[in-house]
Design a protein that fits this description.
The structure holds two protein chains of two kinds. Helix content of chain A is 23%, strand content 22%. Chain A folds into three domains: 239 residues, Phosphatidylinositol 3-kinase Catalytic Subunit, Chain A, Domain 5; 135 residues, Phosphatidylinositol 3-kinase Catalytic Subunit, Chain A, domain 4, CATH 3.30.1010; 105 residues, Immunoglobulin-like. In chain A, a hairpin with a 4-residue loop joins strand 13 and strand 14. Chain A is globular, with a radius of gyration of 26 Å. A seven-stranded mixed sheet of chain A has the order 4-7-3-2-1-5-6. In chain A, helix 10 packs antiparallel against helix 12 and helix 11 crosses helix 12. Chain A is an alpha+beta fold. By secondary structure, chain B is mostly beta strands. Chain B has two domains: 38 residues, no CATH class; 273 residues, Porin (Beta Barrel), CATH 2.40.160. Helices cover 14% and strands 50% of the residues of chain B. In chain B, strand 1 and strand 2 form a beta hairpin.
Chain lengths: 547, 404
């Protein structure tokens, strides 16, 4: 009997031992459309619930674990959440600026007003083009012409180039007198919440709160509705219980953890669940959910309907310690962000600065489980993407906002560039930033330093390399030779090491200003004929978990 | 032992295929198997109780309070009325969204009640013209009276009842700037006085001779004609900076007995000084009311300005001071604790006077205190004020609405 138990125990151990690397690793596409999600329903959080649960509820799993959706080389594969763009491929400035746009510009001639706007504080309504495609139309506040529409144009282009799914947005001008309300257009009455026939004064209500051009027309933002069936928003924690493709807890998805870096860079303090969008699409008869980042009207210096306040980006809406301190001291305690001296800029910019901006202290409107789970390796991944945006690309994106005042374009370009440099410096150096690692057939190792390439650090005096043999079945690492020191991005593997199927090397560097570089980054190669291909990357001080 | 190892290896191969099908040979296949497994376990999302409650609050509750048609009427009716509740009906969609009708009736925990119908056209002529008309009936059964003038005695608390019908109309013009409103109006008032309903205190005539309380026996109707100028450049309405000024000249014409005709002038100047990014605000207010009569006319006591209560001298009871002339200076230091929640330290000083020449800063009654406000940019929703420092004891106010 004992023998049988032992047999079963051993059999279990052996049978659950899957290899560290499968033959198809690293995967660059996560096929998360494989299972049919047609039974998924809408999950639409209210503002209040999203605030409450994230502020007081501490939702999601909080543990120091490697992102669970990265591939074996520590990158995010393409999925329904994310598509590698500027981080993995060379994009021209024109491609970056174009973003998700399907056309050069939209012509709203012949479009009809087809309904009211259902969410958000920015006044607007819906229009439908002759082909039946629905668009959302939004106006800028009279106090800050071009503010929200400019922010939305810029944010959309940035987040698209980064890799997120976004809807395409355009700028247009509207002659209010020529608008035609379609028969059957409805609106949710703002006074009683009931849906009713849309009337002319509903448009008046929108345009009474809109910045008017000298020509008498109105500059508007035109957002194309995403295709598919709306399923509400995604959350930055947990999984959708009705989506069989949603395997990974959202708080452990790298592109959601890393969104904190992008949020800090572009001051997207409004990056929260309710500003996302899930759409049910059908491909080859199988339904799947596409996840969008949504609503960038409150990024940079915009508060959508006013210049951004001082607090957003610096403190949560409800943060206990500074609040109690302020209460107890009758206001003598002054939160640091209150004294930030914002530059005098055109009203279309709002309130934004780069001098006192500290990426590590940046905060969204309220706690975000994915952001709080962000580890140095997640931040490194995101910071590398940020570093790929050239000055020219940033200027090009800002120009897309078509600010009437060139000073607005200049200020925003310079400020985003300055914030980029701070963001990259803050987060690219928290791990050993060795990248582009290759092992040639003759055993020559080559690598670059992403921080040095991004001008976020000087080169270290030396790198320390530790080689090992790797057993893919047991995950065992056997050191070969002692520590090797090199001063440049090149080294030779120890004699006899490269005879196996898998070899690895850990690299760390000593740099007085960059303590994060002392945590080794590890690279594992697999024999591929006579060559070696990179199959595994681990960064940071914590041992990697299996994906 | 060898037998065990052999068996183990055999089982290692067999068990997975028995239990979960063929073991994946690729990462993609492993992920696909996990998704297929998860597909058997999907379930419809079920919101929890908090989520449903918040959804209800945002989708329904706000509309219940601010909804069109019938809605609950909550708040207070006047200073000292206590919390009132009732039923209202509103239609803000009249005449192609140009007009708004509001009709309500409410009673308070202290037996006050009121009903009112008001029709407003707030944005006519491209926002340059404002019109409103109203009719109301207000029944206040236990209004405080301590005597007239600055030397009234807090121990002389008495009460009276007053029921007033109001019918009026007002027109305002914004001639060239949205900050300036100039206008005038007419209002017909039918005040009727009676015995106070608070048995803890004597009725006014039991404590004061009629000569000391002009109008206590009045059954006069009044026609009030009014001219006003209002400047409002607060930013935002619950101001962090800017000012709000109103100057109001009124002529009250006694249409019944020709005994109580008088003129009254009110000036209310509120200035707001924000600092530290508007997170600290010094709010100041100066209110002056003065009147004149032509002998033998006298000003009825119930139309005189009063001080005391949650919106004037907070360290004193409601209507503690009453006189033909009055002045009030208030200052609040407000500091933001969290978004939408402010603290406030305040100081109030003021007095009533029998003669206009006595309207000065000598011998002011004063108080100080601390309070907290739940607010939005459009005003205070709810506040708690505690006032000290007067010779009238400590006072705690829990009030729906702001002060200035």
């Amino acid at each position: 009997m004992a023998s049988i138990a032992a047999v079963v125990a051993v059999a279990t151990i052996v049978s659950t031992q899957s290899p560290r690397f499968y033959p198809d690793d690293p995967l660059w596409t996560d096929n998360d459309r494989v299972a049919d999600a047609s039974k998924a329903g809408a999950v639409e959080d209210s503002n209040g619930y999203d605030f409450l649960v994230n502020t007081l509820g501490h939702p999601g799993e909080r543990r120091d674990v490697r992102a669970l959706n990265v591939n074996t080389v520590d990158e995010v594969p393409d999925s329904s959440w994310f598509t590698n763009r500027i981080g993995r491929m060379d994009m021209s400035v024109a491609e970056i600026v174009r973003g998700p746009d399907r056309v050069e510009r939209v012509d709203i001639t012949g479009w009809q007003v087809s309904g009211g706007k259902t969410t958000g504080v920015q006044p607007g309504f819906r229009m439908t083009d002759p082909a039946g495609q629905i668009y959302q139309i939004e106006v800028d506040p009279p106090s800050n012409p071009e503010l929200a529409s400019g922010a939305e144009m810029i944010g959309t282009a940035f987040y698209h180039a980064i890799g997120y799914n976004v809807v395409d947005v355009y700028l247009a001008e509207i002659d209010r007198d020529k608008l035609v309300i379609a028969e059957g257009a409805t609106i949710r009455d703002p006074l009683n919440g009931r849906r009713r026939q849309m009337k002319k004064y509903d448009l008046d209500d929108v345009f009474n709160r809109a910045a008017r051009l000298e020509s008498g027309r109105y500059r508007v933002l035109v957002s194309r509705f995403a295709s598919g069936t709306p399923l509400g928003n995604f959350r930055y924690y947990s999984r959708r219980p009705d989506d069989p493709n949603d395997l990974v807890l959202h708080e452990h998805r790298r592109e959601l953890r890393g969104a904190r870096v992008f949020g800090a860079w572009l001051n997207h303090d409004d990056s929260r669940g309710i500003n996302s969008l899930d759409m049910l699409e059908t491909t080859n008869g199988r339904a799947w959910i596409k996840h969008y980042m949504f609503d960038f009207g409150s990024i940079l210096g915009s508060g959508t309907v006013y210049a951004q306040r001082h607090r957003p980006g610096n403190e949560y809406m409800f943060e206990q310690k500074p609040g109690w301190l302020t209460l107890a001291t009758l206001g003598l305690y002054v939160r640091p962000w209150i004294t930030i001296d914002y530059p005098d800029v055109p009203s279309s910019v709002g309130r934004l600065e780069s001098q006192q901006f500290d990426p590590l202290k940046w905060k969204p409107e309220y706690p975000n489980a994915a952001f709080e789970n962000m580890r140095p390796d997640d931040a490194f991944w995101a910071a590398r993407i940020v570093s790929k945006f050239s000055d020219a690309a940033i200027r090009g994106i800002v120009q897309k906002a078509a600010y009437s005042d060139p000073a607005a374009t200049d200020f925003l370009t310079k400020t985003i560039i300055a914030r980029r440099d701070k963001v990259v410096a803050a987060w690219i150096n928290q791990v050993c930033p060795v990248v582009d690692v290759t092992l040639a057939a003759d055993g020559t190792l080559s690598f670059n330093n992403a921080a040095v390439d991004a001008k976020a650090a000087t080169a270290p005096a030396a790198y320390e390399l530790n080689w090992f043999r790797f057993d893919n079945a047991t995950d065992q690492r056997t050191p070969v030779g002692g520590a090797m020191t090199v001063t440049a991005g090149s080294a030779r593997a120890p004699e006899g090491l490269t005879t196996g199927d898998f070899v690895g090397v850990s690299v760390k560097a000593t740099h007085a200003q960059q303590p994060g570089w002392s945590a080794p980054s590890t690279f594992i190669f697999r024999r591929s004929g006579t060559n070696w291909s990179l199959v595994g990357v681990e960064r940071g001080p914590v041992a990697a978990a299996k994906p | 032992m060898l037998r065990i190892v052999v068996l183990s290896l055999a089982l290692a191969t067999l068990v997975p295929s028995i239990v979960q099908g063929q073991e994946a040979q690729t990462r993609e296949e492993a992920d696909r198997q996990r998704r297929e497994q998860q597909a058997t376990e999907v379930q419809t999302y079920q919101p929890n109780g908090v989520e449903r409650a918040m959804d209800f609050a945002e989708d329904k509750a706000i509309f219940i309070l601010d909804r069109e048609g019938f809605h609950p009427k909550l708040g207070s009716l006047t200073v000292g009325s206590g919390f009132a509740y009732g039923l209202g009906f509103r239609d803000r969609d009249l005449f192609s969204n140009r007009g708004a009708l509001e009709v309500w009736a409410a009673g308070s925990v202290k037996g006050y009640w009121a009903t009112e119908a008001r029709l407003r056209f707030p944005r006519l002529a491209n926002n340059h013209l404002y019109l409103e008309t109203w009719g109301s009936r207000r029944d206040y059964p236990q209004e405080n009276f301590f005597g007239l003038g600055p030397d009234s005695n807090r121990d002389d608390r008495s009460d009276y009842a007053i029921r007033t019908n109001h019918f009026g109309g007002r027109v305002g013009v914004r001639p060239f700037a949205r900050h300036l409103l100039v206008g005038g109006g007419l209002e017909f008032l039918q005040p009727r006085l009676g015995a106070g309903q608070n048995d803890s205190y004597p009725d006014v005539p039991e404590l004061f001779p009629p000569t000391d309380v002009p109008g206590i026996d009045s059954r006069s109707d009044f026609l009030r004609s009014e001219f006003f100028v209002e400047v409002d450049y607060r930013e935002p309405i619950y101001a962090k900076k800017g000012g709000w000024y109103r100057f109001d000249w009124s002529h009250f014409d006694d249409r019944t007995t020709n005994q109580f005709t008088f003129n009254r002038f009110d000036a209310d100047v509120r200035q707001f000084f924000g600092f530290l990014a508007g997170r600290r605000v010094l709010a100041t207010r100066l209110f002056v009311s003065t009147s004149d009569t032509s002998a033998p006319q006298v000003m009825p006591f119930f139309l005189m300005p009063t001080l005391g209560g949650n919106d004037t001298l907070r360290g004193f009871r409601e209507y503690r001071f009453r006189g033909p002339h009055a002045m009030l200076a208030q200052a609040e230091y407000r500091w933001e604790i969290w978004s939408g929640f402010d603290g406030a330290i305040f100081y109030d000083a003021g007095k009533v006077a029998d003669h206009r020449s006595d309207l000065n800063f000598k011998d002011l009654e004063s108080d100080y205190g601390i309070g907290f406000r739940f607010n939005t940019n459009n005003g205070v929703i709810f506040r708690v004020d505690t006032a000290f420092g007067s010779n009238d004891g400590k006072h705690l106010y829990i009030v729906v609405g702001g002060i200035f």
